[in-house]
C-alpha cells in the first residue's frame, strides 16, 4: 500500500489512488503518515484536530475517524492503522509515503550536485518535483503540524527547483531553462538565487545584454520591495558579466562569472542534511 499527501491525502493499493472520506479523517491519516512507524497519542490527535476547545466527545470522534480510515483502506483487522497503548500507529514502510520519497530524493540530489554529478542531481531532483500534485494536505482539515509541514515542504520544493535548474545549467541546457526561470521568478520575485541563475543562463546562451537587463530588473524589484541593494553575490555576478570579453565563449565566461559565489548558503534555507547548493546567491536569497 502506498500513501501520499503532497497534494490530496490518498492511498493506493493497485494502479489507482483513492481518497479518504471526510475532512478530519484525512487530517488524522496525514498526521499518522508524518509519524509512520511511531505511536501518535490520542491526546495529541485531539489537540491537532481541535487546537482551540476540543469537544467533550473528542476521543470518541477520534476512534470513529480511525474506523473510517480503516474502512477506506480495507484494513478491517487494524494491521495498517494499529491500535496501541494510548494511541494509533500507521504501519507501513517509510518509502511507501510520497513525502519521505520527496525528502530522500532531494537529499540525494543536492548531495550529487555538491559532488559535481549534474546528471544524477538532475535525475533525483526531477523525481522529487514530479511527486507534487498540489499544495500538501490540500483536502485535509488544517492542524498546527500540517500547517508547519506545508511551509517546510514548500521551502524544500523551492530548493529542489533551484537545484534542478542548477544541474541543468551545469549540463549546458541554458536556453531550455530561461522560460522556467521566468515562471519561478513570477512566483518568487525576491529569491536572488533565481535571478542569478537567469543571468547565468542568458549569458551562457550568448544573450549578454539580456543578462544585464535581468540584473537591472532584479535590482528594481529588490530595492522597491525591501529598500535594499541586491546581495553581494548578485552584484559580483553583474560585474563579472560586464567585464567578460567573451574570448573563451559564453559558457566558460559564465562559469568564471559565478566561480566561488555560493560558498555560504543560507542556514535557514539549507536542506535537512545540511548540504550546500552551488549557485549564484545563497539558496534562500532574501525572504519571499
From TrEMBL:
Keyword entries, A-Z: DNA-binding, Transcription, Transcription regulation
Keyword Transport: no
Limits of the OmpR/PhoB-type domain: 1-92
DNA-binding region, residue intervals: 1-92
Lineage top rank: taxon: Bacteria
InterPro entries linked: AfsR-DnrI-RedD_regulator, BTAD, OmpR/PhoB-type_DNA-bd, Sig_transdc_resp-reg_C-effctor, TPR-like_helical_dom_sf, WH-like_DNA-bd_sf
Entries under Gene3D superfamilies matching the protein: Tetratricopeptide repeat domain, Winged helix-like DNA-binding domain superfamily/Winged helix DNA-binding domain
Example of a GO biological process term: phosphorelay signal transduction system
GO molecular function, one term: DNA binding
Region of interest: Disordered: 244-288
Pfam families reported in the protein's UniProt record: BTAD, Trans_reg_C
Family: Belongs to the AfsR/DnrI/RedD regulatory family.
Full protein name: OmpR/PhoB-type domain-containing protein
Amino acid at each position: 500500500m502506498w500513501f501520499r499527501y503532497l497534494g490530496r491525502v490518498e492511498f493506493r493499493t493497485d494502479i489507482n489512488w483513492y481518497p479518504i472520506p471526510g475532512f478530519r479523517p484525512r487530517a488524522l491519516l496525514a498526521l499518522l503518515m508524518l509519524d509512520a512507524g511511531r505511536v501518535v497519542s490520542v491526546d495529541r490527535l485531539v489537540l491537532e484536530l481541535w487546537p482551540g476547545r476540543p469537544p467533550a466527545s473528542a476521543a470518541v470522534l477520534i476512534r470513529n475517524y480511525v474506523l473510517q480510515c480503516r474502512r477506506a483502506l480495507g484494513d478491517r483487522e487494524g494491521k495498517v492503522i494499529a491500535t496501541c497503548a494510548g494511541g494509533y500507529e500507521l504501519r507501513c514502510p517509510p518509502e511507501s509515503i510520497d513525502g519521505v520519497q520527496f525528502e530522500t530524493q532531494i537529499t540525494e540530489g543536492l548531495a550529487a550536485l555538491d559532488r559535481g554529478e549534474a546528471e544524477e542531481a538532475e535525475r533525483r531532483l526531477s523525481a522529487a518535483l514530479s511527486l507534487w500534485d498540489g499544495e500538501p494536505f490540500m483536502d485535509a482539515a488544517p492542524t498546527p503540524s500540517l500547517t508547519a509541514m506545508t511551509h517546510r515542504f514548500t521551502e524544500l520544493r523551492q530548493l529542489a527547483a533551484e537545484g534542478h535548474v542548477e544541474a541543468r545549467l551545469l549540463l549546458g541546457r541554458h536556453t531550455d531553462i530561461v522560460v522556467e526561470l521566468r515562471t519561478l521568478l513570477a512566483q518568487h520575485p525576491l529569491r536572488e538565487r533565481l535571478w542569478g541563475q537567469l543571468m547565468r543562463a542568458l549569458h551562457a546562451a550568448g544573450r549578454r545584454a539580456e543578462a544585464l537587463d535581468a540584473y537591472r530588473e532584479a535590482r528594481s524589484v529588490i530595492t522597491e520591495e525591501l529598500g535594499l541593494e541586491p546581495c553581494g553575490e548578485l552584484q559580483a555576478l553583474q560585474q563579472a558579466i560586464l567585464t567578460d570579453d567573451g574570448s573563451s565563449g559564453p559558457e566558460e565566461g559564465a562559469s568564471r562569472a559565478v566561480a566561488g559565489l555560493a560558498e555560504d548558503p543560507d542556514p535557514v534555507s539549507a536542506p535537512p542534511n545540511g548540504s550546500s547548493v552551488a549557485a549564484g546567491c545563497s539558496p534562500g536569497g532574501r525572504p519571499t
